[in-house]
Design brief:
about 300 residues, Arc Repressor Mutant, subunit A, D-Maltodextrin-Binding Protein, domain 2, 3 domains, 5-stranded mixed β-sheet
Length: about 300
């Protein structure tokens, strides 16, 4: 039987999420569309790919074989997409940029505006996500983000180190000592437990009172600025806030690095190259702030 790539995409979405609603969200369609299409797909093949369980959809033996083949097709289509896009010499079209909420609020905003003014034919599609977006699957063209170990499939430029230090609002520290263990703390939740900063916090201050946990350093920054307690923050965030006070020196064990990344197949695309060159040069002006020398 012949079938379309969209059939395989839908099949993979169900296989990965285990539910029709999860697949519908991933593909940007409604629940009934996924239900109708997977039933039609199975009827056309003459085989059941999923067991319908109370907890969701589970792959049959035939489904497991289909998944392995479909993922190989997916990898080839993704590779072809990147290579074709990599031949695009136009300084126009859409450029998908992913970064974190902290970076765009505290640093990147003005530079994005300047890039858009310099290249009016390029439309920026900004994706804010504190988890890593998969550039290999073209979820984004360029990533501007902190990381100590970029994926081997990506190429780019290490802008600088990324320093962390403890901070608190000046109002919160009135009448308090600099004994870090005696302070209330704002910390990240388990979704960001891989950060060196969180590992340092858990190891160094295991008995500290945690007033709030969140999945965003931006949420920690705002809570800290409002006087909820102390926090370990990137210096480019803490040092630029007038209400904040740095509580001692930089913590080397909490450090990260700041990268500008793209996939190797996209590096010669004109709009990707323009963004990488422009933003790389612009961000070099922020190295002192990023490395904690901005005070």
């Amino acid at each position: 039987m012949s079938f379309q790539w969209d059939d395989l995409r839908m099949f993979l979405a169900i296989a990965r999420t285990g539910t029709l609603s999860g697949a519908a969200k991933q593909m940007g369609v409604n629940h009934s569309t996924v239900f109708r299409r997977i039933n039609g797909f199975e009827d056309g093949l003459g085989v059941r790919l999923f067991e319908r369980l109370g907890s969701g959809y589970a792959l049959t033996i035939a489904g497991e074989e289909m998944r392995a083949s479909a993922e190989r097709v997916e990898r080839e289509i993704d590779r072809l997409d990147r290579r074709i896009t990599g031949q695009d010499l136009r300084l126009e079209g859409t450029l998908v940029v992913t970064t974190t909420d902290t970076v765009v609020e505290n640093m990147l905003g003005p530079y994005l505006a300047a890039f858009k003014q310099a290249y009016p034919g390029i439309t920026l599609d900004l994706v804010l996500d504190n988890q890593h977006i998969n550039l290999s699957k073209r979820q984004a063209d360029v990533a501007v983000r902190p990381t100590m170990s970029p994926p081997e499939t990506l190429v780019g430029r290490r802008i600088s180190g990324l320093a962390f230090a403890p901070y608190a609002a000046k109002s919160y520290m009135k009448g308090r000592t600099l004994d870090l263990a005696a302070l209330d703390w704002l910390a990240v939740d388990d979704s960001l437990a891989h950060l060196a900063a969180d590992k340092w916090f858990r190891k160094t201050l295991p008995g500290a009172h945690v007033a709030m946990r969140t999945n965003s350093l931006l949420g920690i920054l705002h809570g800290c600025e409002a006087g909820m307690g102390a926090a370990l923050l990137p210096c480019f965030m803490g040092d630029t806030r007038k209400k904040m006070l740095r509580l001692g020196g930089i913590i080397p064990q909490a450090a990260s690095a700041f990268w500008l990344l793209t996939h190797e197949d996209l590096r010669h695309t004109a709009r990707v190259r323009a963004f990488m060159d422009f933003m790389g040069d612009a961000l070099m002006a922020e190295v002192d702030l990023l490395e904690g020398r901005g005070v």
